[in-house]
Design a protein that fits this description.
Number of strands: 11
Number of helices: 8
Pfam families: Acetyltransf_1
Number of domains: 2
CATH architecture of the largest domain: 3-Layer(aba) Sandwich
Structural class: alpha+beta
Distance between the termini: 44 Å
Strand order of the largest sheet: 1-2-4-3-11-5-10-9-8-7-6
Helix content: 25-40%
InterPro entries: Acyl_CoA_acyltransferase (IPR016181), GNAT_dom (IPR000182)
Organism: Lysinibacillus louembei
Shape: elongated
CATH topology of the largest domain: Aminopeptidase
CATH superfamily of the largest domain: Gcn5-related N-acetyltransferase (GNAT)
Radius of gyration: 20 Å
Order of helices and strands: HEEEEHHEHEHHEEEHEHE
Protein name: GNAT family N-acetyltransferase
Length: about 240
């Protein structure tokens, strides 16, 4: 059995597909003229340390890359800096392994956890009003997302998680989760993440958990949920020329 599902592997293989410009044990450079404008340059560093880059021919030309000429991650990033191309801050990307997926799919949710609907507008509004703007921005949990689950304590919504299909051509569902500060450390987030992930699996989707590299609390939560690091993903910034 492979570590991650074929759905996950196929998505990243298709995202980093094209003409292999350079490849060794540590670094791979791929040219693809069909990338979306917003993703015309992407970098994926998998958990085993292999760095893969995919870019349009235009960017490859700007970087003055020569086919088959040895190139390392350090050289590549130096070239980006020289011509002013910026990348968004990297995201950690976590998934459940195939083994853990089996456990998630057979778990029984606790009675204080349920799916939220449009009938929960007032409950969710109170939840949002009790959270900081920074927490709301970081978590990106919305009641109108594809699926929303919540955990209740003291007769109020203590933690919520929502997810949405990450793109049109994949079965990955990107999720966010937020626990109100007074209810943290009580296991709400772990249970909600696993409950909404079970729902995603029932609908034929793979849950995807992302967070920035310096978000230690979110990384700790991913580990508590038994998610496994797949890699780090970077995409070109809209501020780049």
């Amino acid at each position: 059995m492979t570590l991650f599902s074929q759905t996950i592997i196929d998505f990243w293989d298709s995202s980093f597909n094209g003409e292999i410009f350079y490849n060794d044990d540590y670094f791979c450079c791929i040219i693809n003229p069909h990338l979306k404008e917003s993703r015309r340059l992407m970098v994926l560093t998998t958990a085993n340390g292999k760095v893969s880059v995919v870019m349009t021919p235009t960017i490859a030309t700007k970087l003055q890359l020569v086919k088959e000429q040895p190139i390392s991650e350090e050289i590549f990033r130096n070239k980006l800096e020289e011509i002013g191309i910026l990348l968004h801050s990297a995201d950690h990307i976590f998934y459940f392994t195939e083994k853990e997926k089996e456990k998630v799919c057979t778990e029984t949710a606790t009675k204080n956890i349920r799916q939220l609907t449009e009938q929960d507008v007032e409950v969710f509004s109170e939840f949002e009003n009790s959270a900081s703007e920074q927490d709301l921005d970081d978590a990106y949990v919305e009641l109108d997302h594809w699926a929303v689950f919540g955990s209740f304590a003291e007769e109020r919504l203590a933690c919520a998680s929502s997810m949405y299909p990450w793109s049109d051509n994949t079965k990955l569902a990107d999720l966010g989760v937020l626990t109100l500060s007074q209810f943290r450390g009580q296991g709400h987030a772990r249970k909600v993440v696993r409950a909404i992930s079970q729902y995603a699996y029932e609908k034929g989707y793979e849950p995807q958990y992302r967070c920035q590299l310096d978000n230690t609390a979110s990384i700790s939560l991913a580990k508590a949920c038994e998610l496994t690091l797949f890699g780090q993903w970077e995409v070109i910034s809209p501020d780049s020329p």
